[in-house]
Amino acid sequence: MNTSQHELLTPVSIWTRLLQAKIVDGDMPALDHAQTATQPWYIRVMLGFSGWLGALFLMGFVGILFSLARDNGIVTICIGGGLCSLAYLLFRIPGNNDFLLQFALAVSLAGQGFFVFGLFQEFRSDGAGVYLAILLFEVLLTVTVSNWIHRFLTTLGAVFAAYFFFQQSAIFGLMHGLVALAACGLWWSPILLRRPELLRPIAYALAFALLCTEGGRFVSRLAFDPNHGWWLLHGWRVGTSLANLALLTATVIVLQRQQFTLNSLPAILSLVAAIILCGFSYVAPGLSSALLLILIAYSFSDRVLLGVGLIALLSFVSHYYYQLQVTLLYKSIVLLGLAGLLLTSRFLLKRLFPIADSTTSATDNLEQESEHV
């Protein structure tokens, strides 16, 4: 019995069944034995843990050296650069070794920490210049080091460095709009399909950083006084306008991918609804950013982004509801108008496109018949 089950799970038998079901055609692709002969998950977890443990011992040794020269920022920067260079060489070693990958990731994160600490230690008075140097350093690591998790983390580091660079330059509320435009441009760029190993982790990092920068601007007015001028009071409107531009651009791209002309009725209704939602985002901050993530998630069938976008939408609406600078009646009217817009859009979609309902009902009938059979 065990032998027959094992034979049913062989790649040849699976390909034969796919051929019989007319799902595939042609000869079976050649097997990559380096990928098929993978280790069990618990062994990979132990190897990854041992990689971090070895990196901790290395960082402890480097920390002893750092304690001897803790008053010299240049030495700290050189230690950080040396650790990042070591991590780069470790990532370049061929083979999918979990111990080596996790060890290199831990070494790189430690090197970035030493580099950042050394910059603040050496240049205490120039905050904007330090963040600009961190931004360039993180961009360099993102481009040169070929690892998914590492590129995701270094992209986040670059975005946060740019965020604090604008904050130190007294340009508040702008970063979330720039991140929204970058995420919109990258996710629908054809280059993403040509170089996914480089751009896909960057795209995910931009999507996550969009929510962080959107939420981070809520505390800008608490951390800085009104003497910073125009950007503190009105910069968030500029950033929201850029995020709205990204949402409208994404809507147009989705309509074109669905082969709708811009003068057709579905396109006009979609754009009008998007413009109204953009207007709501000036009253309820964060709405356009969350809707942009949801639109990206639906377009690329990405459940992770969809879940993050829905949670962000609920979070931003809840944050707006519990704000104290406007009355509860005003907030209730805004939320009631938003709910009415969404329900009206759903009603119009069901009336204008009944084919989707009939297709869904036909699919449900086929599933019920197959269950009875």
TrEMBL record:
Keyword presence, tRNA processing = no
Keywords, alphabetical:
Membrane, Transmembrane, Transmembrane helix
Q: Which stretches make up the DUF4401 domain?
A: 40-352
Q: Which domain of life does this protein belong to?
A: Bacteria
**Coiled-coil regions listed:** none
Pfam family name, one: DUF4401
Stretches that traverse the bilayer: 41-66, 73-93, 99-120, 127-143, 171-190, 202-224, 236-255, 267-297, 304-322, 328-349
What is the name listed in the Swiss-Prot or TrEMBL entry for this protein?
DUF4401 domain-containing protein
